[in-house]
Specification:
Layout: H1 9-19, H2 24-31, E1 36-41, E2 46-50, H3 52-58, H4 71-74, H5 83-93, E3 97-106, E4 115-127, E5 133-142, H6 144-166, E6 170-175, E7 180-183, H7 185-191, E8 207-209, E9 215-216, H8 222-229, E10 233-241, E11 247-258, E12 264-273, H9 275-297, E13 301-306, E14 311-314, H10 316-322, H11 326-329, H12 340-356, E15 360-367, E16 373-384, E17 390-399, H13 401-446, H14 450-478, E18 485-487, H15 489-498, H16 501-506, E19 510-515, E20 521-523, H17 525-543, E21 548-557, E22 564-572, H18 579-583, H19 601-611, E23 615-621, E24 629-630, E25 646-654
Parallel strand pairs: 19-21
Antiparallel strand pairs: 1-2, 1-5, 3-4, 4-5, 6-7, 6-12, 8-9, 8-10, 10-11, 11-12, 13-14, 13-17, 15-16, 16-17, 18-20, 21-22, 22-25, 23-24, 23-25
Helix pairs in contact: 13-14, 15-17, 17-19
Length: 660
């Protein structure tokens, strides 16, 4: 960097310039000097000489713009600044002035707008041969870049100090010998003390402890290895001991500092309090232990699985039940104890749940250690994170074998009850025509007229046809379906109502049939006949003397899937049901028929309908002034007076079904 001339230079240069005796080669040196030089004369400080650097500094195009002019006229942008007064003082007192890094605004562009710049400059008085002050020499060097750079460094250091002090983590710096050089307030907060800078080494804590409770001498701190190798050490867990003897668990990171030559100059250490994290980990560990204890103690079989469906936990009940080890049944190994007939459906539903995230549920059989297969209800639900992504599955498997056997016994009981009711109906339906046939045979024995005999024979034949019709439908009703077949629901309704024809007629109950089913459905025919018989029998019991029963089929839409379906409506004009009855309608053992009902018919019917993926809705009005009670949102009602009492059952069967 160029330096300013010595103050004695002014006297010699000024005298030479004033006398016009400056040699040309010396003048050229001054003109092209890297330092701005100006010679001013008289009390008005008129410019007598300016070099090229000075012209550029003033922002002028040539020296002619300032030469011969007083400084106040040549540089009006300096008005209001202290520089004119400083010049006056130098001229008056003869004392030179040295300015360092002073801000001087100049109109360098000639636009009337000044730009700020910093200068080191000297005002030096010049004297004539008699020692009288006749002017001054001004020399200046622009130091704007140095000032701006230093200010940037200072601001950066200030920001660093503010940031360093405000860091949420504790930090401190040690030199090459592990002597502490500085630290932030968070470090003091955790240490519980302020170590002596430049004196204490390694760390500001009283003692260091490893997670296993062993004391770690400061001299064996990982910092020593970092200073030796220059390799960072991260996520080191220790506990720091405070002056009061308390300990704080922290995570520590060590990072080497290097000088401009790349040599290790020290180490930056940061550490953070992990007390809350350790407490949370302990709480989680305790929770996991408690959960595992509960799961191991549960009478149910419990499992968990990954998001992809691989089972990664079975409780002890599983190993006790199967006689297999966890290693044998983990992941997809559990398939080996599922009944061969249930494996395909189990896997299909499990894969569907994994892909869709829907809950998993199935009733299937598991092989016990002694080889017996027992029925279980298996359920599983997905656990999702905050983003809604499945992270795991949790499930349970409940032994329902005894319940299945009990339900099967109840179904058999209900079938016996149904058989008893049918027997009574059949007895009524057959006894009447048999009695008529007996009377006709008696008449035929005593009759001699061929025409009368033929008439009696035709009447007997008609009565026997009635008996055959009842027997045929009865056989259909009790023929057990071993596989699903395509059936018209209207035909199944006719089969079910056939055994009630005589009683309906004798009670004066009108039967209205309105069938418009568009096709067949895949079903177990004998089971649906049982369902329809239950609903029709209940309708008959509710109607009895007089009234009407309506059987209707219509095309419909399955509201769950949007696919085509068939709606079956069974309606009566009987006494209806109240809201409490409707709520309990499908409960086992609930009946309104006292000793004449088992309370199992509709419960079993609901189970059969569920098996056929059918939905049932009920609407009932108990009195003419009552408001209908309903178990569904909407039900197809029959064309009847809104003030009539009665009940409407609406059954919707999907037309596209499959059975295992």
């Amino acid at each position: 960097m160029s330096t300013l001339p010595h103050p004695d230079f002014a006297a010699n240069f000024g005298s030479l310039a004033q006398a016009g005796e400056t040699p040309d080669h010396i003048r050229e040196v001054f003109l092209h000097a890297p330092v701005a030089i100006a010679l001013l004369t008289g009390p008005e400080h008129r410019f007598a000489f300016v070099n090229h650097r000075c012209v550029r500094l003033f922002g002028r195009n040539s020296a002619a713009e300032v030469l011969g002019k007083p400084v106040r006229e040549a540089l009006p942008e300096l008005a209001g600044q202290p520089y004119f007064d400083l010049m006056d003082n130098v001229y008056r007192t003869g004392e030179h002035f040295i300015g360092n890094e002073l801000l001087i605004p100049f109109d360098r562009e000639g636009s009337g707008q000044t730009s700020e710049a910093y200068f080191n400059f000297i005002y030096q008085p010049t004297r004539d041969a008699h020692g009288k002050i006749e002017g001054m020499l001004a020399t200046a060097i622009e130091v704007t870049e140095q000032v701006v750079a230093r200010e940037a460094i200072r601001a950066s250091e200030e920001r660093y100090r503010v940031l360093y002090g405000a860091l949420p983590v504790a930090a401190f710096v040690c030199d090459r010998d592990a002597v502490i050089q500085n630290y932030n307030s968070r470090a003091v907060e955790l240490w519980g003390r302020e170590p002596r800078v430049g004196v204490e080494r390694h760390c500001g804590s009283m003692k260091l402890w490893l997670p296993n409770g062993t004391q770690l001498p400061h001299a064996q701190s990982p910092m020593i290895e970092v200073l030796r190798t220059g390799i960072s050490a991260r996520n080191i867990e220790v506990s720091i001991e405070r002056p009061d003897g308390s300990r704080i668990p922290v995570i520590v990171n060590f990072c080497p500092l290097r000088d401009s030559c790349g040599e290790i100059a020290g180490v930056v250490t940061s550490f953070d309090d992990i007390t809350e994290r350790k407490q949370a980990e302990e709480t989680l560990r305790q929770s996991v232990e408690n959960t595992r204890f509960i799961m191991e103690s549960m009478p149910q079989k419990v499992f968990t699985a990954t998001a992809g469906g691989e089972v990664d936990y079975f409780n002890a009940q599983w190993m006790d039940y199967t006689g297999l080890t966890y290693e044998e049944i983990k992941d997809w190994g559990w398939m080996q104890f599922v009944h061969p007939e249930d494996v395909e459906e189990t896997v299909r539903l499990w894969l569907h749940a994994i892909e869709s995230g829907d809950p998993f549920q199935i009733e299937h059989r598991f092989r016990r250690a002694d080889g017996e297969y027992r029925w279980h209800l298996s359920r599983a639900s997905a656990l999702r994170n905050a983003a809604g992504e499945i992270v795991m599955w949790t499930g349970s498997n409940t032994d329902i074998h005894d319940r299945i056997l009990a339900e099967e016994a109840l179904r058999k009981t209900e079938k016996l009850a149904v058989t008893g009711r049918l027997a009574a109906s059949i007895s009524h339906e057959i006894n009447n025509p048999l009695e008529a046939v007996t009377n006709l045979i008696y008449l035929m024995k005593t009759e001699t007229s061929i025409e009368d005999l033929q008439a009696y024979a035709r009447q007997a034949e008609e009565e026997l046809a009635r008996i055959s019709h009842v027997v045929t439908h009865t056989l259909r009703f009790h023929r057990q379906s071993t596989r699903a077949t395509e059936e018209r629901l209207s035909a199944l309704l006719d089969s079910a109502v056939a055994v009630y024809q005589g009683r309906l007629k004798s009670s004066g109950t009108a039967l209205h049939r309105d069938y418009r089913d568009p096709g067949t459905v895949l079903c177990f025919a004998s089971e649906l006949r049982q369902v329809f018989s239950n609903f029709i029998g209940n309708a008959y019991d509710a109607t009895r003397l007089g009234g009407r029963i309506v059987l209707r089929t219509r095309p419909a839409t399955d509201w769950k899937t949007g696919s085509s379906a068939i709606r079956v409506t069974i309606a009566d004009s009987g006494h209806g049901m109240d809201k409490q009855t409707l709520k309990r309608l499908f409960e086992p053992f609930f009946t309104t028929k006292d000793i004449h009902g088992t309370g199992l018919g509709l419960w079993i019917s609901a189970d059969i309908l569920k098996k056929h993926h059918a939905t049932v809705r009920v609407r009932s009005r108990q009195t003419k002034s009552a408001t209908p009670a309903s178990t569904g949102k909407e039900v197809n009602s029959e064309a009847k007076d809104d003030n009539e009492s009665g009940t409407v059952f609406s059954l919707v069967f999907p037309t596209f079904l499959s059975f295992p």
